[in-house]
Amino acid sequence: MTIARRKSREVTIGNVRIGGDAPIVVQSMTNTDTRDVEQTVEQINKLAEAGCEIVRLAILNEDAAWAIKPIKDQVSVPLVADIHFDHRLAVSALEAGIDALRINPGNIGGQKNVDKVVDAAKAHGSVIRVGVNGGSLERELVEKYCGPTPEAMVESALRHVRMLEDRNFDNIKISLKSSSVTDSVLAYRLLGQQCDYPLHIGITEAGTMLRGSVKSSVGIGILLWEGIGDTLRVSLTEDPVAEMAVAWEILRSLGLRYRGPEIISCPTCGRTEIDLISLAGEIERRLQNETESFKVAVMGCVVNGPGEAREADIGIAGGRDKGIIFRHGEVIRTVKGGSNLLAAFNEELDKFLAERQGR
User: Fold this and answer.
1) What CA–CA distances, in Å, run from 154 to 148, 160, 177, 188?
2) Are 315 and 299 in contact (CB under 8 A)?
3) Among candidates 140, 158, 228, 245, which has minimal Cα distance to 188?
4) For 46-69, how does the pLDDT look when each residue is reduced to its tens digit (9 = 90+)?
5) Residue 201 burial class via C-beta count within 10 angstroms: exposed 0-12, middle 13-18, buried 19 and up
């Protein structure tokens, strides 16, 4: 089944197309002090290497805004400036070469300040992402809807969008963030019906690695399955680089985009006679820097493993003090001695990768 994506207008951040028929884009945010150019550049480049396609930076003061220029000179991905309350920081970031802003027009200090930011964004051809967070909604909307409900979030977003549209600015992207999976899904559904701007999706304050990955996968997965979402971020209380693996696995699981090998491994059972958990972990680490897409199977049963993982490009199945290595369900090598399994598989994996790369 092919997912029918919501039709959105296209915008461009740096050299990355968003919306329209463009692929869904993976984003993240640095947790460095943006004024520390060296450290920030290092983290951005690590994110890019792990598959991040757009990176957001916290801009807390003028020094951080003007650090954007030397940072941009040393990275290859587009950058977004995260601005709160101070329109001057938005203008400075644009003058320093930022590709997009994340800002709420309603909280930067009045009509004249909004005019200045919009004029600067027009002059630099930059996108403005209107970012609404359920935890910081306008008081009157919280009172009107008796809480930070999906309806309140959508009304807030559209109110901010109209401030830009009234100034003939429509180079816009929108995000609605809540720590509640159900509220986020409902809010994006409502918003998607009321505008055609590209949407950035995610579950904010999702939590640490395990809980955050689960909440993000459920929320983002539901939205993507319904065709909603043009960019996404998996928000984890973790090194931002860790967000990339989760983001790409979400996309892969829905057949939307692929990056790196897919590892298929069985959950172990009473028939397992090898240390399958360690074997699968070692193979996963061995392949963590591969970007090409293919399937690898790590199975715990010699009898059923190759058949159950017939679609795998290459795989291994272990039994009592032995194992087999197979391709597309056909055995290509038998290995004696459980301690020899990993080394033998790595040899066959090297041959497999060399063939794929034409060496």
Assistant:
1) 10, 10, 11, 8
2) yes
3) 228
4) 999 999 999 999 999 999 999 999
5) buried
Using one digit for the tens of pLDDT, what is the confidence trace for 197-232?
Answer: 999 999 988 789 999 999 999 999 999 999 999 999
Rounded Cα distance between 19 and 5, Å, is 10
Give the Cα separation of 118 and 156 in Å (integer): 19
Contact 175, 131 (CB under 8 A): yes
Do the Cβ atoms of 100 and 81 come closer than 8 Å?
Answer: yes
Helix-strand-coil split of the chain, %, nearest 5 = 40, 20, 40
| Host H or E run for residue 219 | helix 209-225
Report the b/e string of 29-62 with b at 16+ CB within 10 A.
bbebebbebeebbebbbebbebbbbbbbbbbbee
End-to-end CA distance of the chain: 36
Q: Outline where DSSP puts E strands in the chain.
A: 11-13, 16-18, 25-29, 54-58, 79-82, 100-103, 127-133, 172-177, 199-201, 231-232, 262-265, 295-299, 314-319, 322-327, 330-336
Query: What is d(CA 188, CA 153) in angstroms, rounded to the nearest whole number?
Result: 9
Separation CA 247–CA 253 (nearest Å): 10
CA distance 244 to 233: 9
- Those residues with Cβ within 8 angstroms of residue 221's Cβ, 6 or more apart along the chain or in another chain: 250, 253, 254
Beta bridge partners of 235: none
Q: What is the pTM of this model?
A: 0.91
What phi and psi values does residue 17 have, to the nearest 5 degrees? -80, 140
Show Cβ contacts of residue 48 under 8 Å, excluding neighbours closer than 6 positions.
55, 75, 76, 77
Give the dihedral sign, CA 322/326/329/334. Answer: negative
**Pure H helices in 13-167:** 37-49, 62-66, 68-72, 87-95, 111-124, 139-144, 150-165
Rounded Cα–Cα distance for residues 348 and 330 (Å): 14
d(CA 100, CA 97): 9
Supply 106's token pair: 């309603």
